[in-house]
Amino acid sequence: MTPKLPTSQDALLFTPGPLTTSLAVKQAMLHDAGSWHWEFNNLVAEVRQAILALGGVSRESGWEAILMQGSGTFGVEAVFQSAIPPEGKVAVLSNGAYGERILLMLQHARIAHTILRTAEDTPPTPEALDALLASDPAITHVAAVHCETTTGVLNPIETLGPVAKRHGKVYIVDAMSSFGGYPIDLEAAGIDFIISSANKCVESVPGFSFVLCRRAVLLATEGWARSLSLNLLDQLKGFEKNGQFRYTPPTHSILAFAQALKELEQEGGIAARAARYQANNAALIAAMQGIGLKSYLPPAVQSHIITSFVYPKDSAFVWTEFYRLVAEKGFLLYPGKISQADTFRIGNIGRLFEKDMRAVVNAIVETLRGHARRGQRHRRDLARNGCESGLGRHHSMAAGRTTQRNG
Ligand SMILES: Cc1ncc(COP(=O)(O)O)c(C=O)c1O
Questions:
Q1: 98 CB under 6 A from ligand 1?
Q2: What's the average model confidence in pLDDT over 322-343?
């Protein structure tokens, strides 16, 4: 038997983060950085400055970039733990798991809230937000998710923001999976707080999240924080006092992020990265359609970050088995998260190119063919033993679809 040796390269991650990173980003972590040392703290200052530039804003125009240890959820929760006054009330626009997570954060913090929920394939409209804000003057803040990674739906944050502003509300956007992969005009969208993390479209490794916010709005939150470690204003004060994180910094993750920022610039900035992701996404959806696998969302609301695909019409399709077989070929897919349909997801952010999208679809084709062949063998065995199987019809449907269009 051939011994199972370690592979020469990592599997490609078709996931919304952690995602596939460049070799140089990984190599940047092969150093020890002292959290008190001027060299590391200068790098933290450079990273904060670069995040402002990525957002198209500056300190001079009244913005701040604050890094927060932990995954993206910690950054989002830091905003809600810190920026809502005791008598505040948040209107949450939710069409997926991350909108629902904001709701959970508010429940945990005992912050008053209301929810404008739409179906998972349906973005909220500015008209519905306008009506909600007109009907409930107690609302002080509006929270939206840009790319709702649950499905990949892109919510219209640029048209919702001006409605929130017209009503005098603070506007908070979770742009976890989209910041750096879509150009966002923070001023025009009326955004006060926007959150993302290191391991998404900047293409670095996990370890911290970051918040871009209007300085004046953050300074006004003095005394409101409900958490010690997730206190956003205190985190800013810490950076301003001595350039340091208040508590142990994610040193290696910062080293990697600095390299990832250089590579983002090298690629041509957010516009160029968005163009690559768009090309990846178009190649993926076209190839999947070619083998009869449909994306869940209508094209008009599909982001170029991640796509949900409906399970093949094969009653014998088992996601975990399919996942394992595709993973053995070197491609890691992502499970579905939609409550109303059986789906799996394929992300196309990270260091991936159109050829990688075609390669993962080829691996899917091979896997489904193998599945169909096993089905045929199974049917033959049953026939030989004089049995009938209801499964057979479905196996041959999958086989017909995959072989016919690619054979
Ligand atoms: C839109 C959105 N918000 C929040 C999160 C939570 O981030 P994390 O899993 O890093 O805590 C994610 C994760 O993918 C996300 O896509």
A1: yes
A2: 94
Q: 2: which residues sit within 8 A by CB, 6+ positions away?
A: none
Rounded CA-CA distance 257/124 in Å is: 33
Q: Are 71 and 205 in contact (CB under 8 A)?
A: no
> Which of 182, 154, 201 lies closest to 302 in space, CA to CA?
154
- Measured CA distances, 2 to 5, 16, 330 (Å): 9, 34, 18
In the predicted model, is pLDDT for residue 360 greater than 90? yes
Mean pLDDT on 310-338: 94
Spacing, Cα 330 to ligand 1 middle (Å): 24
Closest CA to 251 of 209, 210, 208: 208
Q: Label residue 404 by pLDDT band (50, 70, 90).
A: very low
- pTM summary value: 0.92
Inter-residue contact 347 to 19 (CB < 8 Å): yes
Percentage of the residues of the chain whose pLDDT score is greater than 90: 86
Closest atom, ligand 1, to C-alpha of 96: 1
Domains of the chain by range and CATH? 23-266 (3.40.640.10), 269-406 (3.90.1150.10)
Asked if residue 71 has its Cβ within 6 Å of ligand 1, the reply is: yes
In this structure, the chain runs to a length of: 407
196 lines ligand 1 (CB under 6 A): no
